[in-house]
Design goal:
This protein is α/β, with parallel strands linked by helices. It is 59% helix and 12% strand. The strands form 2 sheets. An 8-stranded mixed sheet has the order 3-2-1-4-7-6-10-5, sandwiched between helices. A two-stranded antiparallel sheet has the order 8-9. β1, α8 and β2 form a beta-alpha-beta unit. Belongs to the NodC/HAS family.
């Protein structure tokens, strides 16, 4: 990738000096020169394992295309046999209906995405007092980097309150918070929970300590750009109907391991395509824990319900971000997305950490889909609501079809293994091309190919997560904390 291309990416928009300062990449990766830093970030260097995985990905995908061509008469005969049976006709009709809905939904999201524009940053005179809350648990040095990046924001100092809360960490997180306090002085206030009580309780303490008109929450393993904070509050300033804003999350460690490389492409599609479309409807379904902004009034209106939320009689200790978003939408507020407000966040590098994170997310989705269904089909706010309801329907289709798809997959593996492998890989090739082309157009062609590897990885290694999360939706626990 050329340096000029790099400078057009969200990471590259930072100056080289600020990039080194704000992300701490130079020390973290033992990079001695700016040139080597830029090469590292540009993704020029791939490991032998990266090459092997990418080669295997396209070998499998194009191999499936070849097999479909070679065994076309065989597959046609299977199709004819299905058409001659009642269950076969029913199966094809249901499959076509679901495929038609999926294609319609993607087109609808695409049309909304094309209408999306981020809110330009307001002037210093218009910026409200803002409180940034950083809950931390076992983050070590990363919390110091997070606080440093926040302090280096171009938000007026006299309008910015920084609060960091250690949620009973068992490592040296508190020492790094004290180091940040020594360096930043009165610009940051640090607190310790008496014991590990969970992220929701750490945020709750922060909300009650906050003095700003706008609350911004930032994860303690995340680095913000210099203009992120002012871009986050701008929609709340210009639109009184806006109650919350979702930031644009990118992967911080996507040059260190293969899983983050794949997640980086997935995150871009999830935020810059899907959430931008949801934003046009004023109905972003989840403001991410890594970076979110809230109107104080909207938070305080639902804070007692939020901190005391339960599911099946058990206190909710996960999904605090989706729950807060749900409660703000329920009040009639809009929830927007700011594509120009970037945060770089650490993501899992190992499979066991990744699937635990996804289980937590999926359990939260099941719970909050139920909660949202209680108000989404009522007159919960003024103006059109059909689009918001369609977003919820799409969420429910994913949940409802999880078990039938799992059963179908097992049956095909046993009865028609060749058909299963070929059809699945062909589907991955087609549908993974959407995020790949989107990422290539907006950011980097060389990194976009990871969308195909992620498609295979997600289909064959993570397929079980949604069914498992549905069956264990009432279970407590953060899972990835340690």
């Amino acid at each position: 990738m050329k340096i000029t291309q790099l400078l057009n990416t969200p990471v590259g928009i930072l100056s080289r000096k600020n990039l080194i300062q704000n992300t701490g990449f130079q020390k973290q990766h033992n990079l001695s020169t700016p040139k080597s830093l830029l090469q590292k970030i540009a993704g020029v260097v791939l490991t032998p394992l990266d090459y092997l995985v990418l080669f295997s990905t396209f070998f499998l995908l194009f191999g499936a295309v070849f097999l479909v061509h070679e065994f076309q008469p065989y597959f046609e005969q299977i199709h004819l046999d299905r058409m001659n049976s009642a269950w076969g006709k029913s199966f094809i009709m249901v499959s076509l209906a679901l495929l038609s809905f999926r294609l319609f939904y993607i087109m609808y999201i695409f049309i909304l995405h094309k209408k999306y524009k981020p809110v330009p940053s307001v002037s210093d005179d218009e910026l409200p007092k803002c409180t940034v809350i950083v809950p931390a648990y076992n983050e070590g040095k990363l919390v110091w980097k997070t606080l440093k990046s926040l302090a280096e924001s171009d938000y007026p100092e006299d309008h910015l309150q920084l609060i960091c809360i250690d949620d009973g960490s068992k490592d040296d997180t508190w020492e790094w918070m004290k180091k940040a306090k020594e360096e930043l002085g009165d610009r940051v206030s640090i607190y310790q929970q008496p014991k590990n009580m969970g992220k929701r309780h750490a945020l709750y303490r922060g909300f009650n300590l906050a003095t700003g008109e706008v609350f911004i929450t930032v994860d303690s393993d995340s680095i913000v750009k210099k203009n992120t904070l002012r871009n986050m509050v701008s929609p709340l300033v210009v639109n009184e109907k806006c109650g919350a804003v979702a930031g644009n999350v990118r992967v911080l460690n996507n040059k260190r391991a293969m899983i983050p490389k794949m997640l980086n492409v997935s995150f871009v599609f999830s935020f810059e395509f899907v959430r931008s479309a949801q934003s046009v409807l004023g109905s972003v379904l989840c403001t991410p824990g890594a970076l979110s902004a809230y109107r104080k009034e909207a938070v305080m209106n639902c804070l007692p319900d939020w901190i005391n939320q339960t599911f099946m009689g058990q206190p909710s200790d996960i999904g605090e971000d989706r729950a807060m978003t749900n409660m703000i939408l329920k009040q009639g507020y809009e929830v927007r997305f700011q594509s120009n407000a970037y945060v770089l966040t650490d993501t899992p590098e190992k499979y066991n950490s990744l699937y635990k994170m996804f289980i937590r997310w999926e359990r939260s989705n099941v719970r909050e889909n139920i909660m949202m269904s209680k108000y989404a089909f009522k007159n919960f706010r003024k103006g059109p609501k059909a689009g918001t309801r369609l977003l919820l329907v799409d969420q429910w289709i994913k949940v409802i079809t999880a078990y039938p798809f799992l059963l179908l997959m097992l049956c095909l593996i046993i009865m028609q293994p060749l058909l299963f492998v070929c059809s699945t890989l062909m589907g991955i090739l087609i549908f993974s091309s959407i995020p790949a082309l989107f990422f290539a157009r907006r950011h980097s062609k060389s990194e976009a190919v990871w969308a195909y590897s992620y498609g295979i990885f997600h289909t064959f290694a993570l397929f079980w997560i949604t069914p498992y999360a549905i069956a264990t939706a009432s279970k407590k626990g953060w899972l990835t904390r340690g």
